[in-house]
Every structure is written in structure tokens, then in C-alpha cells.
Amino acid sequence: MRKEAWQLRRYPTWFFGSIFWPILLPAVYVLQGQAFSGNDPRAIAAFRSVTGTTEIAGFVFVGWALYMWLSIVLWGPGTALRNEQVRGTLEALFVTPSSRLVLLFGPPAAYLAMAGFQFVVMAVALRLFFGVELGLDALVRALAVILITVPSMYGIGALFATVALRSGEIGSLVQFVRGFFSLFCGITYPIVVLPDWARAIAQVLPPTYFVADARAVLLAGAALGDLLSDLGILLVLGLVACALAAFAFSLAERSARRTGMLARY
Fold this sequence. Notes:
By secondary structure, this protein is mainly α.
């Protein structure tokens, strides 16, 4: 974790994108939505009937907050093991007395600050550019939802890291995984518009619950007590994701002992 944090500090230009992209990408969707609706009250009413809110900007920005967090997890912790392999240092890390779980789950912790920074940028952009003011109590509840989601994102990043290490591919895998979650987790639209089979998939994906619960506390004023079942499911799915990642990593390690995969480019 310390090494990853030092790398982030060494290349501060990485943070420039954390200001630009979290504003531009969701803003495009917000402006498109406003253009298509023409500010017609009937269109706004239809939007509210399926989303529970009239705040188009808030709805889209919360969804994109998950997308940006997922991007950080995949491009950062998700590629950490593969990058060590390319540099030729992964094999040396494996002969240290450190726990394998440190190698697997250590890198994501270093990127939590970057994700938090992007959340702040998006909240400020909502207030300045779209007039959506988020109350302090709502932000505190949203922080609780984020903390409960952390194990899920850890698990997704660690599982992705193992797959990337085995496949030796990064870019195409990142695009596929981001597209998969964007399609099923309701980043730019509510999952109620999906067909039944797609909603069934969405309900076993942790990001679906994060997006829905974050929107509920920020835009609909829901209390955490109203979301206990969702938050419980989110926590369980996070623990399952971490367990699957640890199991997959143990299989990859045993395979590496037989094939010498760790030293390969």
C-alpha cells in the first residue's frame, strides 16, 4: 500500500484527470437528457415515475461516481500484479515473508484517497454547474454507504487483478468489465428498464446496490434504516467477492509454481 501511495505522489499529473473526467463525462449525459426532455413537465414526470427523483443531474452524477470509482479500481489495484510482472518484480515479491493477501488487497487501499477526491469534485460540480445542493446529513449517509461498499470494490479489484495476471491482458479486460457493469448496474438509467433476465444479473452485482442506495440517500432523503436489507446484501456480496478473489489467487499461485508464470512478460 505504501509503495502505491508513493507512486501516486510521484506522478501528480494523474490527479488532473480526477478533476476533468468526473465532471465532463456525466455532464454530457445530463445535457443530452435535458435536451431530449425539452424541460417538458410530462417528460420530467415520466422520469420521476421510474427513478423516484426529478433531479436528472443528480441521478446521472451518482451513477457516474460508481463508474469513476470502478475505473480507479480496475486501472489501479486491478492492474497492480500484472504491472509488477511486467517490471520483473513480482517473483521477488512472492519470495518475501509478506502474506499473499497483502499483495492482493494492499494496492486498493492506496487508491481510496483518489476515489474520495473524485467524489468531492463531483459533488462540487453538481452544486456549481447544475444547482443540486446536497445536504450535510445526506452526505454523511452517503459516506456510510460508501464505507459498506468498500469490501465489494476491494473484491472486484482483487479478482480482476488475478484474471489480468493470468491472461496477461489489461486494456481490453478493463473496457469489458466497465462496459459490463455499466450495462447491468444502472449507471445512467434505472435498472427497472432492463428485461427480466438482465435485472436478475443486476441483483447479484454489488455496484447495483451502491448506485441505488447512494441515490436514495442523496436524492430521495432516505434514511439508512430504510436501506438495511440492501446494505446487508451489499456487505455480504462484498465478502463473497473478497473470498472468491482470495480463492482465485491461490489457484493462480499454485499454477505459477508449476509453470513459472510469475517471471513471464
